[in-house]
Amino acid sequence: MRTVAVDLDGVLAQYDGWKGDEHIGEPIPGAVAFVNKLSEFANVTVHTARMYTSHDLVRKWLDEHGFRYANVWAGNGKPIASAYVDDRAVSCIPENGNEKRSYDQVLRRCLSLCIGESREPTGKNILIMTVGLPRSGKSTWAATQNAPVVNPDSIRLAIHGQPFISSAEPYVWATAKTMVRSLFIAGHETVILDATNTTKARRDQWKSSQWERMFCVFDTDKDTCILRAHETGSTLEHIEGLIGAIERMNDEYEPLDSDELEEHDNSLHQSYPV
């Protein structure tokens, strides 16, 4: 039979941070049934990057919880296998003639994983600010992150049911800022502000002693955003409003300056097409 390598922490065992070489979390619900079904047609090698956790300890844990497996691999490198099941794995199979899209998908997934690792508990409040044109992919990305999201477009719909009413904007942004503060007060260390934030003046409005800012930049070009507006707009009026906003923000766009880049270590600052 072929071999399938299955990661231990985060795939089979619950993992919420390193707690020592001797600690392995409880089995994730469904993990035993998954591995035992997999073992019916593959040799299952349970692998872990733990350097100082013994093979015997991993085997003892697997046996105690009823896992059926063939081998255990611990430490450097990885076992030879036909497939790898890992919570940090990113599949990359470039499509003939569409390689750029394939690599862009991998970039998005890697960014999500890297940001997730950067959000280890720090005792600091981190406000992740998206930066990009309307329809550049900000909301799609924000929805995949394990953090609460404050979205001014959603606030607008909740307040008056329209994509934009100029007179209501001060209330929209005051509500957004109140939501961000309340989420930090509630104990969240990371909050995402899913907005365009295309000018320095707009980004500067979110400076605060209560949190540190980080930026996630979406470099989707204007023409692509306009195409998406045509594809996703609900009415002709909505589409025209989106296109007008895209063109205006593209003309006004101000990249992050050196002060913004140096404000933090910027481990979350990424630029990539969506």
Entry keywords:
Rossmann fold; 4-stranded parallel beta sheet; 14% strand; 9 strands; 274 residues; single chain; 2 domains; disordered C terminus; alpha/beta; 5-stranded parallel beta sheet
Q: Could you walk me through the main structural features you see in this protein, from its secondary elements to its overall organization?
A:
It is a single chain. By secondary structure, the protein is of the alpha/beta class. It has two domains: 3-85, 3-Layer(aba) Sandwich (Rossmann fold), CATH 3.40.50; 120-272, P-loop containing nucleotide triphosphate hydrolases (Rossmann fold, 3-Layer(aba) Sandwich), CATH 3.40.50. 39% of the residues lie in helices and 14% in strands. The protein contains ten helices and nine strands. Strands 6-7-5-8-9 form a five-stranded parallel sheet. α8 (222-232) runs antiparallel to α9. It is elongated and about 65 Å long. Residues 269-274 have low confidence and may be disordered.
Structural class: alpha/beta
Secondary structure tally, helices: 10
Major sheet attributes: 5 strands, parallel
Ends: how far apart? 39 Å
Total domains, how many? Answer: 2
Assign a percent range to the helix content: 25-40%
CATH architecture designation of the largest domain? 3-Layer(aba) Sandwich
**Which homologous superfamily in CATH is the superfamily of the largest domain?**
P-loop containing nucleotide triphosphate hydrolases
CATH topology assignment of the largest domain: Rossmann fold
Order of helices and strands: EHEHEEHEHEHHEHEHHHE
Low-pLDDT ranges = 269-274
Using the alpha-carbon principal axes, give the shape.
elongated
CATH class call of the largest domain: Alpha Beta
Q: Give, in spatial order, the strands making up the sheet with the most strands.
A: 6-7-5-8-9
Strand content: 5-15%
